[in-house]
Design a protein that fits this description.
Elements: E1 3-10, H1 15-35, E2 42-48, E3 51-57, E4 66-74, H2 79-89, E5 98-102, E6 106-115, H3 120-133, E7 159-167, E8 174-175, E9 179-180, E10 183-184, E11 188-190, E12 199-201, H4 205-214, H5 221-238, E13 242-243, H6 247-254, E14 261-266, H7 276-287, E15 290-293, E16 300-308, H8 317-340, H9 352-358, H10 365-375, E17 379-381, E18 385-386, H11 387-405, H12 409-419, H13 426-430, H14 437-445, H15 450-458, H16 473-492, H17 506-519, H18 526-539, E19 546-550, E20 556-559, H19 564-567, E21 572-576, H20 588-609, H21 614-620, H22 628-642, H23 645-667, H24 683-704, H25 708-716, H26 719-728, H27 736-754
Antiparallel strand pairs: 1-3, 1-7, 2-3, 4-6, 5-6, 7-8, 9-10, 11-12, 13-15, 14-16, 15-16, 17-18, 19-20, 19-21
Helix pairs in contact: 1-3, 5-6, 7-8, 9-10, 11-12, 11-16, 11-18, 12-15, 12-16, 14-15, 15-16, 16-17, 16-18, 17-20, 18-20, 21-22, 22-25, 23-26, 23-27, 24-25, 24-26, 24-27
Length: 764
């Protein structure tokens, strides 16, 4: 079967776009071919900085014939309807149609039309121009003489040539002829622009890839990555160093070169006084180079690894020299930032009010930066105020959380007021990725407590599922307060995630709270914390947020709020987001409830990722459950219990009791509120009653002590008496009083197990 080779060669494609563009090309082409009736055995995409390539194997030589039955009008229909049918079906006369009969509708015409298949070449030539013209580049451009014409071709960089060949291994390939923007598809490509600029005639993929390799082009991006990684590690090892690996940089660099040549450069050791994070980002951002270190060392060496696209005649000396000059210049700038951030700001007199507000010491550089952040009224979000206002809110919320977590309140307060200060440092201004990291370093330089410095860095964590949670109690407190304030604020202004869109990373923030609570064993009363955070937001909201109150006369009025209890009361019926615009409102209590539901959804995802069954989570999670740690522990205990023999048997008995009870309740059968011991006639029902009394008491005590495994063990004692009860006792006794009492006994089984979980929601 024939193969298709397609190459779109252009000027340099940005590295960040290459992988996706190659995938898009594969999908667009294969989808179009399949839709046109062709099939193929396999397809693989390739990319370099200057080309997108697609190799499709085992493509049909032509599409199959398609038979289509077109139903027409009744044989008694007027001539006008019959003529319309003939035109639609492409028939010359009604004699070419067939007559079908229907018992109800009578005779009618049907045209059996066969659409012949088409040659694959023809289909490819038809679909390719549209795919190329409408390719989903983020920012396409026009180029050349064609660009002045309406509808001219747009490509990410000027498109230079198209290769499109088709044919089987046993025959000579042929060019699929089509033209886009003045570029005609052919069988000629070009290798490395400096080492091998001569044209290369290709037939099929094997000789295409081999010819490019000879022309100094490594087509496979994964192989380029492997070459760079291997050579970089080898050259570092040969110099007594180890490479600081960076997968993101490796991906980017492999998209910048077609013929990777790995070299080593150096810079002066004086620059090693700069923090390693700054050195690494400076060299990575400006020169796309890797850094190295001594084996096992934390600090960097003064050697860096660069990747060139040219195999230089001098062994790369000039390339290394040029890169070294740029690296030294950038490191000189970085050292300037580092030293300036440790000095005094020139306008300290203007910062006294902000310093007093936050209890800052203007003799310390980091305190100065926090005062400057507040004095400049740097906006956090237009509807949520400034960074200074946000720090004030986090400060209040963190003060409430500190005793819950067991953190020193004074250290927590100090960490909060300095947590955002490095946003005004020049190092973070140049490299935003270093926020928190630089704050920690500057805090240690000015003599802050180690836990405060650690909290400044850690309060952004965890920033994803693979990131660690804050290690210390101070950092944990500040991180929780920071994320809770973020969630409360964006919920209050109705900027919640929708579908796949989550521009403010609120799902990540909620998952961060959950991970901190569960992994660090924090008993956090979430509803109380959310209400407190919302109160702080409204109380300090100025004109941005206010509460709509229910008046005694049935009307409403808008004003501020005095306390959390008032905010959560029934009289607080709405939260107006802008005084000038009534807009949609939601009661503060409902807003907090909605946010708790959002946490529940994230908790379900987290627990499922940890291996918990969805039905066990649903059995434990109630709508008002706000102690997420206890939910996780209940699920863990229930999982262990329900997989044991006792658990499975008790589940079966409990579900039987629950289903029977629910059926009788649905019919309106009388069920006593409580079991009457005097009406228990049989030994088995008396034994069950006694077992339920004991198990309920022991399980409740275990739950109160947060010992859920012991609670499950207490419930497991019900297994035998429940089984025996259903074997020997008839629930629907003829005596209504006895029947009602036995149903009450079933109800007590449901209540006993309900102290731990809703067994009716467990599958099995």
């Amino acid at each position: 079967m024939p193969d298709l080779l397609l190459e779109l060669r252009s000027e340099e494609i940005p590295a960040r776009m290459q992988r996706k563009a190659a995938g898009d090309l594969k999908k667009l082409v294969t989808d179009a071919l399949v839709e046109a009736g062709l099939t193929y055995e396999g397809a693989r995409e390739y990319w370099t900085p200057r080309r997108l390539t697609l190799d499709i194997r085992g493509l049909n030589a032509r599409s199959s014939d398609v038979r289509e039955d077109i139903k027409g009008p009744a044989t008694s229909a007027p001539e006008q309807a019959i003529q319309g049918f003939l035109r639609k079906a492409g028939l010359a006369s009604i004699a070419e149609a067939h007559v079908h009969s229907d018992p109800k509708k009578g005779d009618f015409y049907v045209a059996h039309v066969v659409k012949p298949g088409r040659a694959a070449d023809e289909i490819i030539a038809e679909v390719m121009p549209g795919i190329i013209r409408n390719f989903p580049w983020p920012k396409p451009m026009r180029s050349g003489a064609e660009s002045a014409r309406p509808g001219s071709l747009q490509w990410v960089r000027p498109l230079q040539s198209i290769v499109c060949t088709f044919g089987s291994e046993t025959e000579e390939t042929r060019v699929v002829p089509f033209e886009v923007g003045g570029i005609v598809a052919g069988n000629v490509t070009y290798g490395h622009r400096f080492h091998a600029p001569e044209p290369i005639t290709v037939r099929r993929f094997e000789d295409y890839a081999a010819s490019l390799e000879k022309a100094k082009v490594v087509l496979d991006a994964e192989r380029r990555k492997q070459i760079i990684a291997t050579d970089a590690n080898n050259i570092a090892f040969a110099n007594g160093l180890e490479l600081v690996e960076d997968e993101g940089l490796l991906e980017e660099v492999s998209g910048l070169v077609e013929w990777p040549q790995v070299l080593m450069g150096t810079f002066e050791e004086d620059f090693l006084s700069i923090p390693s994070e700054i050195i690494r980002l400076t060299i990575k951002t400006n020169q796309k180079c890797f850094v190295t270190r001594k084996p096992g060392a934390d600090t960097l060496s003064n050697h860096f690894i660069l990747v060139s696209n040219i195999e230089a005649k001098d062994g790369g000396k000039e390339i290394v020299h040029g890169n070294g000059k740029v690296v030294r210049a950038r490191l000189s700038d970085a050292k300037h930032f580092w030293l300036r951030d440790q000095g005094d700001l020139p306008d300290l007199d203007t910062l006294k009010a902000s310093a007093e507000k936050f209890g800052l010491d203007l003799s310390k550089p980091l305190d100065q930066r926090m005062a400057k952040l507040d004095a400049l009224n740097v906006t956090f979000h237009a509807k949520l105020g400034t960074q200074g206002e946000r720090v004030a809110r986090i400060r209040t919320l963190a003060a409430e959380l500190a005793p819950i977590i067991g953190a020193d309140p004074a250290l927590v307060d100090r960490a909060v007021v300095l947590a955002k200060a490095d946003l005004r440092t020049e190092a973070v201004g140049e490299f935003p990725e270093l926020q928190g990291i630089m704050g920690r370093k500057y805090a240690l330089l000015q003599g802050e407590d180690a836990s405060v410095a650690e909290a400044i860095e850690d309060h952004y964590k965890p920033q994803g599922p693979s990131d660690r949670v804050p290690s210390g109690k101070v950092g944990l407190t500040v991180a929780l307060a920071d994320k809770l304030d973020t969630l409360i604020g964006f919920w209050a202004i109705d900027e919640k995630p929708t579908g796949s869109k989550d521009p403010y990373a609120l799902r990540r923030a909620a998952l961060g709270v959950i991970r901190m609570v569960v992994e660090k064993g924090v008993r956090l009363p979430l509803l109380q914390s959310l209400a407190s955070g919302l109160f702080g937001l409204v109380y300090n909201g100025g004109d941005r947020l206010s509460v709509i109150w229910q008046a005694d006369d049935g009307g409403t009025f808008t004003t501020g709020v005095d306390g959390v209890s008032d905010l959560m009361s029934a009289k607080a019926v709405g939260l107006k987001r802008e005084k000038a615009d009534p807009g949609e409102t939601i009661s503060p209590k409902q807003l907090v409830a909605d946010l708790l539901t959002f946490f529940h959804d994230r908790l379900k995802v987290y627990l499922r990722d940890m291996g918990a069954r969805h039905d066990l989570i649903d059995a434990v999670l109630t709508p008002d459950a706000d102690d997420l740690l206890m939910v996780a522990r209940r699920v863990e205990a229930l999982t262990a219990f329900i997989t044991s023999e006792e658990g499975r048997n008790l589940l079966a008995g409990t579900k039987r009791a629950t289903q029977l009870l629910a059926a009788e309740e649905k019919k309106g059968t009388v069920v006593e509120v409580a079991v009457s011991p005097d009406l228990l006639k049989l030994d088995d029902e008396k034994a069950l009653y006694a077992a339920i009394e004991t198990a309920s008491r022991d399980a409740a005590a275990a739950v109160a002590g947060e010992d859920f495994r012991s609670a499950m063990a207490a419930l497991s004692t019900l297994r035998a008496p429940v089984d025996q009860f259903f074997t020997d006792v008839l629930v629907n006794d003829e005596d209504p009083a006895v029947r009602a009492n036995r149903l009450a006994l079933l109800s007590s089984i449901r209540a006993a197990t309900g102290t731990v979980a809703d067994f009716s929601k467990i599958a099995g």
